[in-house]
Design a protein that fits this description.
single chain; about 260 residues; alpha/beta; 2 domains; 9 helices; SGNH_hydro_sf
Length: about 260
C-alpha cells in the first residue's frame, strides 16, 4: 500500500513539474511576441515621421532648383545623389569637414533626402585628374548635386590658371552629360597664411563661378584674415586644415545647407 502511495506521489510531482515547465515556456513565448510587436509598432511610425517631416525650414539658403530637388526626393523616397569631390583638402578622414557635413545633413534631413558620397583625389592636380579621367568616378554616380573643390591649391604654381579653368570645365561637362540638371557648387580649398598668388587665383575662380552661374561657397569668409597669424592655428605644418580648420569649414557649410 505504501509503495502505491509513493508511486502516485511521484507521478503527481512529475506531472506538476512538466505542467509548470510548459506553462512557463508558453508565457515566455507570448512575452517575446509582445516585445517583437512593440518594436515594430515603435519603428514604423518613426519611418513615417521621417518621410513626412517638413524640412522646408532648413533649405531656405539653397538655390530654388535644389529646394525643388529636395521636395521631390521626399515625395519619391529616392535620395539625391550628393557628391563631395576634390583634392586631399576634401578629406575622407573621420572628423574632416565632409564627414561633419554629412552627419549634420542626415541628422537634420533624415536618410531619405541625401545620399552623400565623398571622393578625394589626394595629391593630384587638375591636370592629373583630366589625363587619368578619374573625374568620371563622379559621372558614374549620375549626381544631382556636386560640391566641387577644384584643385586650386594643388595646381598653384604648376598648372596655370587658364589651364585649371579648362580642366574644371572638362570635368563639369562630363557630369552634365550624365545629368543635365545637375547642380554644381564650387568652393575653394582651405586658405593659406600670407600667400601671394594663391588668393588671386582663388579670386579668379570666384569670378569664373559667377560668370557661369555656379553657386560659389566662399568659406574663406569664416576663417581669420589671410594676413593674420591666427591663421596658423587652423592649419597643419603642411598647410592643410587641422581640426580647427575642418570645424570652421564644416560650420560654414552646415549653416548654408541647414538654415536655422
Amino acid at each position: 500500500m505504501k509503495r502505491i502511495v509513493v508511486i502516485i506521489t511521484l507521478i503527481l510531482c512529475v506531472g506538476t513539474i512538466i505542467f509548470g515547465n510548459l506553462h512557463w515556456k508558453n508565457k515566455i513565448a507570448a512575452r517575446g511576441e509582445e516585445v517583437a510587436n512593440t518594436v515594430v509598432a515603435k519603428t514604423e511610425p518613426l519611418k513615417e515621421a521621417e518621410a513626412n517631416q517638413d524640412v522646408s525650414v532648413y533649405f531656405s539658403n539653397l538655390p530654388e532648383s535644389v529646394q525643388n530637388k529636395i521636395k521631390d526626393a521626399q515625395t519619391s523616397g529616392q535620395p539625391l545623389q550628393f557628391v563631395i569631390y576634390g583634392s586631399n583638402a576634401t578629406s575622407v578622414e573621420e572628423g574632416a569637414w565632409p564627414a561633419q557635413l554629412s552627419k549634420q545633413l542626415e541628422d537634420t534631413y533624415g536618410t531619405n533626402v541625401f545620399q552623400v558620397t565623398v571622393i578625394s583625389e589626394g595629391e593630384k592636380t587638375s591636370l592629373d585628374v583630366v589625363r587619368e579621367k578619374s573625374y568620371k568616378q563622379v559621372s558614374e554616380l549620375k549626381p544631382d548635386i556636386v560640391l566641387f573643390e577644384p584643385f586650386m591649391l594643388k595646381d598653384n604654381g604648376l598648372i596655370g590658371l587658364s589651364n585649371t579653368l579648362d580642366n574644371i570645365e572638362t570635368m563639369m561637362d562630363s557630369w552634365k552629360s550624365e545629368n543635365d540638371a545637375v547642380t554644381i557648387m564650387i568652393q575653394p580649398p582651405n586658405p593659406l597664411y600670407s600667400a601671394n598668388y594663391y588668393p588671386k587665383e582663388v579670386k579668379e575662380l570666384q569670378e569664373y563661378a559667377k560668370q557661369n552661374n555656379l553657386t560659389y561657397l566662399n568659406h574663406w569668409e569664416a576663417w581669420p584674415d589671410l594676413e593674420d597669424s591666427k591663421m596658423n592655428d587652423y592649419l597643419t605644418e603642411e598647410s592643410d586644415a587641422n581640426d580647427n580648420g575642418n570645424k570652421i569649414w564644416a560650420d560654414f557649410l552646415i549653416k548654408y545647407f541647414i538654415a536655422k
